[in-house]
Structure formats: structure tokens, C-alpha cells
Amino acid sequence: MRIALHVPCTQQGLAGEAESMRRLIDQLPGAIRLELPVQPGCCGAAGTYCMNQPAISQQLGATVAEQIRMLHPDIVVSANGGCRAQLSQALFDLGTPMLVLHPAELVADYLNGRPE
Predict the structure, then answer these.
(1) Cα radius of gyration rounded to whole Å, the chain
(2) Shortest CA distance to 86 belongs to which of 53, 55, 57, 106?
(3) 76 pLDDT above the threshold of 90
(4) With bands split at pLDDT 50, 70 and 90, how would you rate the model's confidence at 68?
(5) What distance in Å separates the CA atoms of residue 19 and residue 37, rounded to the nearest whole number?
């Protein structure tokens, strides 16, 4: 299972946050963690930004979605709900719909014997 890890900008500056998600994925049987390039900023979902600046927000989301698409993952994991919604829509818009899960959802699927 190829898992693209998206580290939300809200977590990039928090000590240990990104590393704990990396360790989590690395411990899942059969998981291959794929790292997105370091993000220069937001995926476009930040707070009300996606509503106040929809064109810019969509472009930012499309940029990150293209980076994800280039990795050819089976699933995307992001801990931020706004990022998950933004990336899911941007991937759909690119014609590459795929699951964008919270790390807890990913673990639950593994524990239930059915990683999507």
C-alpha cells in the first residue's frame, strides 16, 4: 500500500508532529510511505481562505494534488480536516479521485483488516 503523507501547514512547525505521523505509517504492515515535496505554504484550505479567495485556494489545492498524483499513491493521509476536504476535491478535479484519510482512519482500516 503506497501512502502519500501530507503534512498540513498547521503541523509543519510543531515539534514531532510530522515525525509521529511518519513513524505511524512506517509501522503499518505493507505500507510504503511517500513524502510530498516540502510545501512552501498552504494547500489552500486554511480557515475561511477557501471561501474568501476561492480562485487562489483552488490553484493551491491543484498544485498539491498534482504533486500527490505524480507519486502514484493508493491513499493520501492528512491530519487536518480542511486539508483532507481540499485535497480530495482537487484530486477529483484532476480526474484522480482517491481516499484522503485521517491517520486514525487509516489505522482503523488496518486493524479491521481492510486497508482501502
Answers:
(1) 14
(2) 57
(3) yes
(4) very high
(5) 15
Which one, of 75, 82, 77, 45, lies nearest residue 60 by Cα? Answer: 45
Cα(32)–Cα(22) distance, integer angstroms: 10
Q: How is residue 58 written as a grid cell?
A: 483552488
Question: What's the CA gap between 50 and 14, in Å, rounded?
Answer: 23
Other beta carbons less than 10 A from residue 104's beta carbon: 11
Q: Three-class SS string for 35-71? A: ECCCCCCCCCCCCCHHHHCHHHHHHHHHHHHHHHHHH
**Domains of the chain: residue spans and CATH:** 2-111 (3.40.50)
Whether 106 and 115 have beta carbons less than 8 Å apart is answered as yes
Of 28-32, 46-50, 104-108, the range with the lowest mean pLDDT is: 46-50
Whether the predicted pLDDT of 9 surpasses 70: yes
